Amino acid sequence: MTKMPSILVVDDEAAIRESLKDWLMEDGYSVALAIDGRNAIAMVGESEYDVILLDLKMPGIDGLETMRRIKEICPDSEVLMMTAYASVDTAVQAMKEGAFDYLVKPFDPDEVELQIKKIMAHREMRLENMMLRKRLEEQTQYDEIIGKSQVMQEVFDLIDRVAPSDSTVLITGESGTGKELIAQALHGNSSRCFMPFVAINCGSLPDSLLESELFGYEKGAFTGADHTKRGRFEMAQGGTILLDEIGDISLKTQVDLLRVLQQKEICRLGSEGVIDVDVRILAATNRDLKASIAKGDFREDLFYRLNVISIHVPPLRERKEDIPMLANAFVKQQCMEMNKEIVKISSGALRQLMDYHWPGNVRELENIIERALVIGSGNEIMTHDLPFSSNDASTPDSPKSLKMMEKAHIIKILGQTKWNISKAARELDIDRQTLYNKMNKYAIKKGES
Amino acid sequence: MSECIYVCPLGSVDEEILDCVTTSLETRSKMAVKILPAMGDPSYAFDEKRGQYSSKRVLKRLGACCPRETFKIIGVTRVDLYVPILTFVFGAAQMSGQCAVISTRRLDPLYYQEPEDHNLLLDRVKKTAVHELGHSMGLIHCRDRRCVMFSSTRIEDTDFKKSEFCHTCRELFRWNRNRCLGSA
Fold first, then answer.
1. Of A9, A23, A154, A255, which alpha carbon lies 20 to 30 A from B136's?
2. In chain A, what residues touch B82 (CB-CB under 8 Å)?
3. B89 close to A (CB below 8 A)
4. Are B86 and A26 within 8 A, CB to CB?
């Protein structure tokens, strides 16, 4: 239930205070009364009022001074001056100092009602603006995508041009390159930015679960469906949906998605009826979908529906000039999160960061910086704070064999993902079974580092 | 048990107007409504400076003089009413209280130098009486312009709205009435 706006009436005449209170209460406002300026200032210090109806001429602290002090305590309060003296000078002075307007006593009933409605509309608009701004700041992640390299500038240009359209976009790139951030930037810079942005990782869910997540289900649609559930498409109504890891979905779900793209409608599991959906579809993958099509794993018609516009996010090794900026941004962000003073990155450490080939891309860089900040103790990130030494298997110049490099890399990723096999497999861009096979092959056991 | 709504003429008031108020209140409240003998002009409420009558003082007097079994009492007067902060009021009520008053002065088309129109006057009286009864039953102004509880700050507002409660106000009115009667 909405809170009723609160009004503080400040007047030294009891009859005025009481009659205003009665009048305003008929409109449903919550009304408090102050007998003079001093009383009003004390009350504003204790409670918040949406509107303050303030008499200009009062004994003790006059209306103007009271308003000044009220504005110091609560700058958002709107003050409506009341005066029995229709002095334009005083009124102008009051408005110059922040009064919303002034009323000459006694008021015409419609005049006071109109003024208060104007103030309320003004306040609502201001609050709405604040909320929209906050929402926009939350949703426009554009600034979070860091890159001064030519390749990233091209990506930004593409986002600028593509975001305002309603076209489906296929975002490709290796794991950890920030495909979801690109999707959020596309949403945040579109006309749908104030509507929901819903992301779903299609690769992390079994087929049956993915179907019910995407399209929802009716109560009784299957065993355990004890209530009706809205799917992600319905949740994204009016906004944008990101189908992450689209290359991993089954052929059956591909057919269902094709229907959404073609007919802009979905059907909940167990329901006969269709639901119209107005959702912009973005898809992301780290797979080569053309190769999947050739193998028969991905429908060509779905690919062309999704690939209306494609944005390729380059791997970090192809934009190494962005590494210092990215690394420093992560240092700053994580120091703030850890509530510690911002540290520097030593030139040696930076050189190592630049030399590394970053198979895990930006996400890996972020993890390495976090690790360095946790284990490092000084006010500078040194080479020994980084997980790769000069003869580390994962550095390109490493003398070790390919097999040893692979083993070391798997161990490193497992460590970074806290031995979560699914996450590690995703990072390594292989399926879980392949990861298990490799762990067996190299005799990698949990806890190894 | 105080289950009767009284209509009380304050000074000389046209009988047709009193009947109109009685019928409309009966219809909307589904309660018995009776007309009391006239109480005389509210001269006690006259403010010389303003040349108007204080509605607050009228309400106070009504409360003091009403019969014991009064559920609500509505005074009807021809004099011009005011509250200190406003230039005039068409009527006034004690919010969730016992007393209300309406003035026919500014409801009459003649006040606006318009041709005499008795039906229009009766229609306005009906709406104003039901509106004030609504306040006395705890209802606040409604946002629906067609609802009788919409705030009338100009006569045009009164003419636009209907003499009936909107669905929500009707439910609230009924709920409040039953609650008051139940606890009476």
1. A9
2. 106
3. yes
4. no
Taking only residues 106 to 145 of chain B, the set having a beta carbon closer than 8 angstroms to any beta carbon of chain A reads 135, 140-141
SS (H, E, C) chain A: CCCCCEEEEECCCHHHHHHHHHHHHHCCCEEEEECCHHHHHHHHHHCCCCEEEEECCCCCCCHHHHHHHHHHHCCCCEEEEEECCCCHHHHHHHHHCCCCEEEECCECHHHHHHHHHHHHHHHHHHHHHHHHHHHHHHHCHHHHCCCCCHHHHHHHHHHHHHCCCCCCEEEECCCCCCHHHHHHHHHHCCCCCCCCEEEEEHHHCCHHHHHHHHHEECCCCCCCCCCCEECHHHHCCCCEEEEECHHHCCHHHHHHHHHHHHHCEECCECCCCCEECCCEEEEEECCCHHHHHHHCCCCHHHHHHHCCEEEECCCHHHCHHHHHHHHHHHHHHHHHHHCCCCCEECHHHHHHHHHCCCCCHHHHHHHHHHHHHHHCCCCEECHHHCCCCCCCCCCCCCCCCHHHHHHHHHHHHHHHCCCCHHHHHHHHCCCHHHHHHHHHHCCCCCCCC
Half-sphere exposure of A397 (CA within 13 A, CB side): 8
Structure tokens at A282: 């973005």
What does the pLDDT look like over A244-264, one tens digit per residue? 999 988 888 888 898 888 888
Q: What is the pLDDT of residue A389?
A: 54
Enumerate residue ranges in chain A where pLDDT < 50.
Answer: 1-2, 138-141, 390-399
Sequence-separated (6 or more) residues with CB below 8 Å from residue A217: A225, A228, A229, A231, A268, A269, A270, A271
Q: Could you count the other beta carbons within 10 Å of the beta carbon of residue A83?
A: 18
* Gap from A301 CA to chain B (nearest CA, Å): 53
Is B15 labeled as catalytic in the residue annotation? no
B84 Cβ under 8 Å from any chain A Cβ? yes
Q: What is the full per-residue pLDDT of chain B (184 aa) written as tens digits? A: 457 999 999 999 999 999 999 999 999 999 999 999 999 999 999 999 999 999 999 999 999 988 888 999 999 999 999 998 899 999 999 998 999 999 999 999 999 999 999 999 999 999 999 999 999 998 988 878 889 999 998 999 999 999 999 888 888 898 888 888 875 4
Q: Does B83 touch chain A (CB under 8 A)?
A: yes
CA–CA–CA angle A76, A77, A81 (5° rounding): 135
pLDDT at position A219 is 79
Displacement of CA B22 from its chain's centroid (Å): 11
Model's pTM, two decimal places? 0.50
**A408-449 per-position pLDDT tens digit:** 888 888 888 878 888 888 888 888 888 888 888 887 877 655
Q: Does B92 touch chain A (CB under 8 A)?
A: yes
Q: Do B84 and A28 count as a contact with CB atoms less than 8 A apart?
A: no
